[in-house]
Design brief:
single chain, alpha+beta, paralog of FGE (formylglycine-generating enzyme), 4-stranded mixed beta sheet, 15% helix, disordered N terminus, SUMF_dom, CTDL_fold
Length: 393
């Protein structure tokens, strides 16, 4: 079981991260070692878990150009669908703002997006259950792991994990006392067999009484399948970030520039000392019911904290540098390749918004410009999504 957990963690630079300083621009190299969760994916954790001295098999920058099909855009709506809000067309400066930024967020650039509809809140357990009951869909976390597929995402020659480690499962955060080395996220992430959207902490847990909480343990394929079933699609990174601003200029957070730690709280995040003591001063130790905090100016809830949200774009840490800097970028669809030095063997998508595990001492990813890579077939207990829909012209 431990073997599984390490491969996932190493490749998964996904979660909350802030580098070694909360007030300076950290390098992405450093970031990959100080994320509050692994950014690559299950591939790395599963193949390195057998030893805490697991070799770091991916250190050089590389590109993975074998990408899945582009997102489906099935339906254009003539009127506002239930549960969605109108995001009007507009321009905004996309990318780094504030003191907690990362190199991947630079340079800032002018972007224009057309109008679209967006879910007012993250997809809930009840909504995802309706999809599963209607289709029989089985999520990535609920499926046994295929070693033939997994080994394509790790360094050549990586040994196969024991069969018991290839059972269904996902990554679950476990608070740890007396942590002094925040660069070692293996201390608080645990590969848990049979953890999935119905069992967020493992096989003995459940989501009973949490129908209105955001669904978690969702991988890209799961989110895309739900969106297609619902007649929607996943947002581009640009659409998501523009929507998070609420139409305001130069804001650090979806609610403006008020410090995240100032009460009353504006989102569900980690209060206390990460990763040992969550005081839950905001009322929630893990996920909160959607809509528990006030919406931004577009009427969107939980665009910061609660769960990370999967977008349609491939993660390319140098993508912004490839964009024109002296003109507006119209409706960008993201990079045409996945490029992430933390795990050059796997394909990653962009996730946005941070989660209930973000904390200023170690994670400032509730900022609108923050983003992380998520390995395509990886899920965690703080990753979910919301959908968008096109407007009929």
């Amino acid at each position: 079981m431990k073997f599984l957990y390490v491969i996932l963690l190493s490749l998964m630079i996904l979660n909350c991260k802030n580098g070694t300083s909360s007030k300076t621009i950290a390098s992405d190299k450093i970031e990959s070692k100080t994320d509050c969760h692994p950014a690559g994916g299950r591939s790395q954790i599963l193949t390195t878990i057998d030893t805490i001295q697991a070799q770091t098999v991916v250190t050089q920058d590389s590109e993975n150009t074998v990408l899945p099909d582009s997102p489906d855009q099935e339906i254009a709506y003539t009127s506002l669908p239930d549960g969605m809000v109108l995001i009007p067309a507009g321009e905004f400066m996309m990318g780094a703002i504030g003191n907690l930024t990362l190199p991947r967020e630079y340079p800032r650039h002018l972007v224009k997006v057309d109008s679209f509809y967006m879910d007012a809140h993250e997809v809930t357990n009840a909504e995802f259950r309706a999809f599963v009951e209607a289709t029989g869909y089985v999520t990535i976390a609920e499926r046994p792991i295929d070693w033939e597929e997994l080994k394509k995402q790790v360094a050549p020659g990586t040994p196969k994990p024991p069969e018991e480690s290839l059972r269904p499962g996902s990554l679950v955060f476990k608070a740890q006392p007396n942590v002094t080395d925040l660069s070692n996220y293996f201390q608080w992430w645990e590969w848990t067999n049979y953890a999935d959207w119905k069992h967020p902490s493992g096989p003995n847990s459940s989501i009973i009484g949490k129908d209105d909480h955001p669904v978690a343990h969702i991988a890209y394929e799961d989110a895309k399948a739900y969106a297609k079933w619902a007649g929607k699609r996943l947002p581009t990174e640009a659409e998501w970030e523009y929507a998070a601003t609420g139409g305001a200029k130069d804001v650090i957070y979806p609610w403006g520039n008020k410090d995240v730690n100032e009460a009353p709280y504006e989102c569900n995040f980690y209060q206390g000392r990460f990763p040992s003591t969550n005081t839950a001063a905001d009322g929630y130790e893990t996920t909160a019911p959607v809509g528990s905090f006030r919406p931004n100016d577009f009427g969107l809830y939980d665009m910061a904290g609660n769960v990370w949200e999967i977008t349609a774009d491939w993660f390319d840490e140098n993508y912004y540098k490839s964009l024109p800097q002296n003109s507006v970028v119209n409706n960008p669809k993201g990079s045409n390749k996945s490029s992430y030095g933390g795990n050059p063997y796997a394909t990653h998508t962009v996730i946005k918004g941070g989660s209930f595990l973000c904390n200023d001492s170690y994670c400032a990813s509730y900022r609108v410009s923050a983003k992380m890579p998520l390995e395509m077939d990886s899920a965690m207990n703080h990753v979910g999504f919301r959908c968008v829909a096109d407007i009929s012209k």
